[in-house]
């Protein structure tokens, strides 16, 4: 068996050197590592939730997966400290479409309850939580576990410009393939393992891991501009500009909005005044940081 494995590895290595082939390796979970004494690292959390639906106000978490990892100042992954994986039985049956997507059945979660104290202890001392759709996962996580309200968050789907680095999109499986791996799972902790390798991947344009770019972006404050009471007939103009619609059901304004860098504020206000409103207006603006971005409280 060892001889066969060695032969396959040699064949894969030979193919990878050819411009006519790309080799994907099955993702194997990294084992926990022992931190080196005196080595300065920071600790992050990768998180993924599987839920009964998309509405964080009414739907429920059925599975939580997390990986606790250390990283260096340059964004390189030092190692995995620990993993967390648990089911949670919802108050009603899991919808068939959720089971079809995740493979999680009512029988699998029956009698299970995620230990809230264990979740809080797991994330203790970490400086950032990262999900591959933080706009989704943060809302569910902080509603269930208030410890996540006080944490900084990053989003690997939106805070790395994957297209600018040669990827056609930000879908996790596709990014994992680009990093040279494949996996067939859609379980929470498996997706966290996939995300870890995606963030460890060195971007050709920078020579630095994707995590470094994500951290740089997450640290920057952004502004959320609300184009309230904008004319209906100009909705396509706003959409083309990058605005998204909020229906007001979550307590936020019923309005189009867009998140921008602080440096783009003057240009954005000039656009609204010249293209959207017929009078001099002062749109509502929120300043967001990693501690408030993606939160259901924002």
Number of domains: 2
Percent in strands: 15-25%
CATH evolutionary superfamily of the largest domain: Ribonuclease H-like superfamily/Ribonuclease H
Residue stretches low in confidence (pLDDT < 50, at least 5 long) are none
- Specify the CATH architecture of the largest domain: 2-Layer Sandwich
Question: What class do helices, strands and sheet pairing give?
Answer: alpha/beta
Note the run of SSEs as H and E: HEEEEHHHEHEHEHHEHEEHE
The coarse overall form would be globular
Strand order of the largest sheet: 4-3-2-5-6
| Percentage of residues in helical conformation | 25-40%
CATH class of the largest domain: Alpha Beta
Q: State the CATH topology of the largest domain.
A: Nucleotidyltransferase, domain 5
Count of strand segments:
11
Report on the architecture of this protein:
The protein is an alpha/beta fold and 298 residues long. It folds into two domains: 206 residues, 2-Layer Sandwich (Nucleotidyltransferase, domain 5); 67 residues. Helices cover 32% and strands 22% of the residues. It has ten helices and eleven strands. The strands form three sheets. A five-stranded mixed beta sheet has the order 4-3-2-5-6, sandwiched between helices. A four-stranded antiparallel beta sheet has the order 9-10-8-11, covered by helices on one side. The longest helix is centred in the first third of the chain and has 15 residues. The chain is globular, with a radius of gyration of 22 Å. The mean pLDDT is 93.
């Amino acid at each position: 068996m060892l001889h066969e494995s060695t032969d396959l590895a040699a064949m894969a290595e030979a193919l990878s050197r050819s411009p006519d082939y790309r080799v994907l390796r099955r993702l194997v979970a990294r084992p926990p590592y022992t931190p080196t004494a005196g080595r300065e690292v920071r600790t992050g959390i990768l998180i993924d939730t599987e839920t009964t639906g998309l509405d964080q106000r009414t739907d429920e978490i059925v599975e939580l997966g997390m990986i606790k990892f250390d990283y260096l100042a340059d964004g390189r992954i030092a190692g995995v400290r620990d993993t967390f994986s648990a089911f949670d039985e919802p108050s009603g049956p899991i919808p068939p479409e959720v089971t079809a997507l995740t493979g999680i059945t009512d029988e699998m979660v029956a009698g299970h309850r995620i230990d809230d104290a264990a979740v809080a202890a797991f994330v203790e001392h970490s400086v950032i939580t990262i999900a591959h759709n933080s706009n989704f996962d943060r809302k569910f996580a902080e509603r269930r576990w208030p410890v996540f309200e006080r944490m900084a968050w990053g989003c690997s789907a939106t805070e790395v410009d994957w297209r600018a680095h040669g990827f056609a999109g930000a879908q996790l499986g596709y990014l994992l393939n680009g990093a040279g791996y494949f996996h067939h799972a859609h379980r929470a902790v498996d997706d966290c393992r996939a995300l870890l390798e995606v963030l460890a991947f060195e971007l050709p344009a920078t020579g630095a891991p994707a995590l470094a770019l994500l951290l740089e972006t997450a640290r920057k404050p952004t502004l959320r501009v609300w184009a309230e009471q904008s004319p209906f007939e100009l909705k396509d103009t706003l959409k083309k500009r990058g605005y998204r619609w909020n229906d007001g059901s979550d307590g936020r304004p019923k309005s189009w909005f867009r998140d921008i860098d602080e440096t783009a504020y003057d240009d954005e206000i000039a656009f609204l005044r010249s293209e959207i409103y017929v009078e001099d207006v002062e749109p509502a603006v929120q300043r967001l940081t990693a501690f408030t971005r993606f939160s259901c409280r924002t």
